[in-house]
Amino acid sequence: MLRINELFLPLEHTEEDLNAAILERLGIKADELVSFTLFRRSYDARKKAAVTLTYTIDVEVKDEAQVLERNKKKTNVGLTPDTGYHFVGRAPANLKQRPVVIGFGPCGLFAALLLAEMGFNPIILERGKTVRERTKDTWGLWRQRELKPESNVQFGEGGAGTFSDGKLYSQVKDPKHYGRKVLTEFVAADAPPEIMYVSKPHIGTFRLVKMIQLMREKIEQLGGEFRFEQRVEDVRIEDGEIRGLTLASGEQIEADHVVLAIGHSARDTFEMLYERGVYIEAKPFSIGFRAEHPQSLIDKCRFGPSAGHPILGAADYKLVHHATNGRAVYSFCMCPGGTVVAATSEPGRVVTNGMSQYSRNERNANSGIVVGITPADYPGHPLAGIAFQREWESRAYELGGGNYDAPAQLVGDFIANRPSTALGSVEPSYKPGVKLGDLNPSLPKYAIDAIREALPAFDKQIRGYSMHDAVLTGVETRTSSPIRIKRDDHTLQSLNTRGLYPAGEGAGYAGGIMSAAIDGIRVAEALALDIIGRQ
Ligand code: FAD
User: Where is the FAD-dependent protein C-terminal domain (predicted)?
Assistant: First the structure.
């Protein structure tokens, strides 16, 4: 197979145009081409009147050696690299103890899948419910203001990203192409096949729910065992090695290899681990609001006359501003054509996030607009970031009226520093609802000041971004984990607890679905190699 890089075509082109461009690049005739597949397709919208597509294409030709020789001077033609996944080993026939995976978010899912594929028959413990039941509970908060602390946006089968935009891109280094394995498994579980090649793949909520069920079934068929509504409440550590787990039911499970993929909202579990002496340190994260604008404004600004083109879809954006008080303000988890969602897992607290469907055809674009903070902002204790998050989430609950409505303010009023009293042209999508007012008390002053300065600056990048009627909804506090459960770089085991593999977002080793899934694969490999090496 040959790979062609950097094949540029105008946005409007036909299949024949693409075919012709391949023939031209390789200098071959039509009958020499056997087939081709898209490896990547991205767009360049810097010139709005002439948006171009950039392709990377894998091509099968009749005489590969000859075509390669003819193109040997071209840097954008070469052999297709091997990006397939190769297992690091197989479980020993006399496996003494099954590994346990705690948490079935993207990290736990891929750790469990890999372990199952290698024959380790993992046990998966998940505190929340199966995804169908969990969906009902999650909508219960959005529609009836009823929060289920063990079954919500954060907890349950599929993890935090289940009710999400399902963005699947990540900036993590991936030299072993684990991301391809993740995408391949998603497509096998009925994800849209285009996620294999579009530069910014996304899935959307409804599809994710179905995919997660299918992936669970696959893990079960491979020998995995699922136990839902089984919160791990304690760990037994002896001589610096994990020995067992205690579930909320009181049941004890023997375990000497445990993947800890518990996400960033398992605050009670973080506290338990800290009390048991597992090494944890504070880490930076970000806080802010969700901003909502008309999607049409973002589309027009990003794509000009090409706005609405089906290949481009709803436009996203990425913004950064370095404020004069030294804080960085940036857009986070931008959801084109989506909705702002209530994402708390604790009663009496309000947290925002964003989600969308595959079609991304809701009226508003939303994004976190967040400010970077560090442990210097919540000093004194490795878990102080959790108390800090709780403080602002509780305040948002009060400002929202104490009924899970979220506090909100129009961008124009926020910039002018006056409370909002009436909505304008942008209808906020947060459910159960928003309470308009003054967002000043909802975050520390340095964050408010930095965001107030950033919004007009963002207008220079997206004209209209600081429009008066755009809506800010608070508060966005769970951008990433406030802690890191540190692990050894080589063995990926906890620094001081052998056999414990802190992984994914909660442990501070991922931020997003793709990076959490990749970390799950890495940890599964490290765990497998440790068992194989020991036995
Ligand atoms: P999680 O997904 O948080 O999974 C952890 C799991 O562990 C949970 O299911 C939890 O119930 C379980 N658990 C916790 N404690 C225990 C315990 N003691 N015992 C048993 N089980 C336990 N990222 C993107 O890349 N793209 C997006 O579009 C996107 N949108 C998002 C939208 C929303 C609304 C939210 C909340 C997040 C979004 N994210 C998105 C972030 C993404 O979901 C997370 O980065 C990712 O899910 C982290 O994966 P994880 O497996 O490390 O942890």
Answer: 284-479
**Residue 253 C-alpha to ligand 1 middle, in angstroms?**
24
The CATH number of 2-79 is 3.30.70.2700
Token readout for 150 is: 């063990």
Can you say whether the dihedral through the CA atoms of 266, 270, 271, 272 is positive or negative? Answer: positive
Weakly modelled stretches of the chain, pLDDT under 70: none
261-302 confidence digits (pLDDT tens): 999 999 999 999 999 999 999 999 999 999 999 999 999 999
- Dist. CA 315 → ligand 1 center (Å): 25
Indicate the pTM of the whole model: 0.97
- Cα 110 to averaged position of ligand 1 atoms, centre (Å): 13
- DSSP assignment of 190-222: T--GGGGTBSS-B--HHHHHHHHHHHHHHHHHT
Give me 38's structure tokens.
């898209």
Q: Which residues line ligand 1 (CB under 6 A)?
A: 102-108, 125-128, 153, 155-156, 159-161, 163-167, 231-232, 261-263, 266, 269, 333, 341, 343, 353-355, 504-506, 510-514, 516
Which of these, 400, 378, 373, 385, lies nearest to 475 by C-alpha position?
400
CATH 3.50.50.60 boundaries in the chain: 100-281+483-534
The number of residues in the chain equals 535
- The class (CATH top level) of 100-281+483-534 is alpha beta
